[in-house]
Amino acid sequence: MAARRLSSLLSRSLHFPSASAPLGRSHGVARHINRFSTAAAVEELTTPPVQVNFTKLLINGQFVDSASGKTFPTLDPRTEEVIANVAEGDAEDINRAVAAARKAFDEGPWPKMSAYERSKIMLKFADLVEKHNDELAALETWDNGKPYLQAAQAEVPSFVRLFRYYAGWADKIHGLTIPADGPHHVQTLHEPIGVAGQIIPWNFPLLMFAWKVGPALACGNTIVLKTAEQTPLTALYVANLFHEAGLPPGVLNIVSGFGPTAGAALASHMDVDKLAFTGSTETGKTVLELAAKSNLKPVTLELGGKSPFIICEDADIDHAVELAHFALFFNQGQCCCAGSRTYVHERVYDEFIEKAKARAMRRVVGDPFKKGVEQGPQIDSEQFQKILRYIRSGRDSSATLECGGDRFGSKGYFIQPTVFSNVKEDMLIAQDEIFGPVQCVFKFKDIGEVIKRANNTRYGLAAGVFTKNIDTANTLTRGLRAGTVWVNCYDVFDAGIPFGGYKMSGMGREKGIYSLSNYLQVKAVVTPLKNPAWI
């Protein structure tokens, strides 16, 4: 499919407005539904239209049991019941996977075949994923809890687009010829870095797979990827399709397991040349330390966020409410760049609060397989309880609970869409990454003030600006210390747009041309020239 904005796809499938939607228009199938009135959608669950066929580790082109023979359950967050038992990899399995990746890099055909041949395999893989769109979307929803239409109409198509994008880069990676001061020919070679270790999170399992695997393979590397223990299923499914597309054995190895065992072994492995991690800032610190203490391998980190969404006094409030709602509640609030600090100008604050509360109360929560459902369950019990603790903290710290604030239904990890007003910067809900459906709304007076307050955080992943004034937009985009600033839109994730953070939100960039440098070494080659016609 042609390149399109992720937010536009979500707008069509989940009835969110795009930035270009007519101002003041009513959006969403849920506008006539009373407060949290979809309990039946939780109780009467849809049977997922997909089977689980891949639960073993992928090492050297074969699906194998873990060395220990151990397995662990992956759960349906709608029911808290087991979907399947998956092979539990540990340090020994990481050793096996790294050995396979090293042999494939040093002796195998992948880095030695032409870039054009590599691109053809990646394109064939993208075609196969596109054919299996619905099964993959169903598996992603079952294992993760996100709305099926979000997975089927936005995330799997974006996955396909990303691999086609990186397939296009494969034969366009090259060095430079550099003029020297004397009679020398100087060139640079852009070489694959070797064995890449990659650790992906549970909130966007397929997309994070694409963000990491795509550029690494385009550059000619081999990979050992560790999935999140909460969501191991779709990575194994697409890995099988990759081998069907002709990927040589050992180029892509997948180990499902836990962070302290498999993840730590991968981060500290002496034969891994490069590490990429997406997850929490605290875990990112550990990953960076393990990489440094082992072989000082370079590390790319995409970490947490507490992103400001700034609504200026000239905003169309109806449109601003809808966009701020999308910025926070998308993917059950489980998004590293969620607009989780909503700053509203004091002149429009009261109107915004009333309309934001009403929008949250119309939000349809329920079985993510059902049409019209906007919000499924949180990922697991740990995240579910963590969010509820933050909600209690907000109440205890005297923020005003406008709506929500409790679990939804009696089964599964569902939480009511929650809105707090009168939030202050010293509150935990204002400082910490909640990673859930909890909107925190602040009041501000002027642009200088809101820039200082928005930047007063240890994070710097993203920000949103909502204004009709180009001068105001320019002042804010240059003043905000964040890796991405969306103006009058949010969560636009085209394949070519780089993504990454300032401060404790990470190191390096993913997606786009910038991601290629993560997986390349630059070598300078200098040779003398004898009697050159020119220098």
UniProtKB/TrEMBL annotation:
GO terms for cellular component: mitochondrion. InterPro entries: Ald_DH/histidinol_DH, Ald_DH_C, Ald_DH_CS_CYS, Ald_DH_CS_GLU, Ald_DH_N, Aldehyde_DH_dom. The keyword Nucleotide-binding does not apply. GO terms for molecular function: aldehyde dehydrogenase (NAD+) activity. Pfam families: Aldedh. Transmembrane segments: none annotated. GO terms for biological process: carboxylic acid metabolic process. Residues 63-525 form the Aldehyde dehydrogenase domain. This is Aldehyde dehydrogenase family 2 member b4, mitochondrial. It comes from Nicotiana attenuata (Coyote tobacco).
